[in-house]
Design goal:
With 173 residues, the protein is of the alpha/beta class. The protein has one domain: 3-Layer(aba) Sandwich (Rossmann fold). The protein has seven helices and five strands, in the order βαβαβαβαβααα. The chain has helices at 14-26, 49-62, 80-90, 102-108, 127-136, 146-154, 157-164, and strands spanning 2-7, 29-34, 69-73, 96-98, 113-115. It has a five-stranded parallel β-sheet, covered by helices on one side. β4, α4 (102-108) and β5 form a beta-alpha-beta unit. α3 (80-90) packs across α4 (102-108). The longest helix is centred in the N-terminal third of the chain and has 14 residues, at 49-62. The structure holds adenosine-5'-triphosphate and beta-nicotinamide ribose monophosphate. Adenosine-5'-triphosphate is lined by residues 7-10, 15-16, 19, 99-101, 117, 119-122, 125-128.
Length: 173
């Protein structure tokens, strides 16, 4: 069985990696969609789709999980109703969808089985917290797979976010 796991992954963290491992213990293959692909360079969506694909690829490769995962970006759709059709156009076929996002659940539940993932320390492992820690200069290294940390450092992602904070405001503020 092949299951879809969509997310913005801004950035991909240890909770996401735990969901991937949890899913691959239960299902044969995963389709990992990097959503909101047109978004980047804002405090809510600091990283480009290409950067997110690369950081996720690096994390999966380190865990030798990449062969069981299809990974690609997808832009937003014009309506929530259209979203699942747009996913089907570009994705290998899948049988069910893993998500804890109410918007995604509403968009797909008439057509696909919804699998709500086990929660992996959501208080600690959530991208909103990690983005705010990056901005404050806190130590966020242990909240993401090491290849993600190394990648964000290498592309000067922290400096980018601090620059963005001079002109942009995160919606969660
Ligand atoms: N720690 C976690 N344990 C289990 N599922 C998670 C965890 N963090 C995120 N998810 C799930 O991963 C999917 C993609 O989530 P997303 O990329 O929005 O991460 P997030 O940490 O919730 O980000 P943000 O804080 O930016 O909304 C969603 O279905 C979400 O419910
Ligand atoms: N109208 C739409 O384009 C639509 C609908 C449902 C989900 N999505 C996308 O699916 C992804 C879900 O990820 P998150 O769980 O990280 O929010 C997001 O990129 C979201 O924008 C988009």
């Amino acid at each position: 069985m092949r299951v879809l796991f969509p997310g913005r992954f801004q950035p991909f963290h240890l909770g996401h990696l735990s969901v991937v491992k949890w899913a691959l213990e239960r299902f044969d293959e995963l389709v990992l969609i990097v959503g909101s692909a047109q978004e980047s360079h804002t405090l809510y969506n600091p990283f480009t789709a290409g950067e997110r694909v690369e950081m996720i690829y690096n994390a999966l490769e380190e865990e030798s999980l990449y062969k069981k995962v299809f990974l690609f970006p997808l832009m937003e759709s014009i309506s929530n109703k259209n979203w699942i059709h747009d996913v089907e156009l570009v994705s290998p076929k899948f049988d069910a969808v893993i998500t804890g996002n109410p918007l995604v659940i509403t968009s797909i539940r008439d057509k696909y089985e919804v699998i709500v993932p086990k929660q992996f320390n959501r208080e600690k492992y959530n991208s909103t917290l990690i983005r705010s820690m990056i901005l404050k200069g806190d130590n966020w290294k242990d909240l993401v797979p090491y290849p993600v940390y190394e990648f964000i450092k290498r592309i000067h992602g922290e400096e980018r976010m601090v620059d963005l904070s001079k002109t942009d405001k995160a919606p969660e503020d």
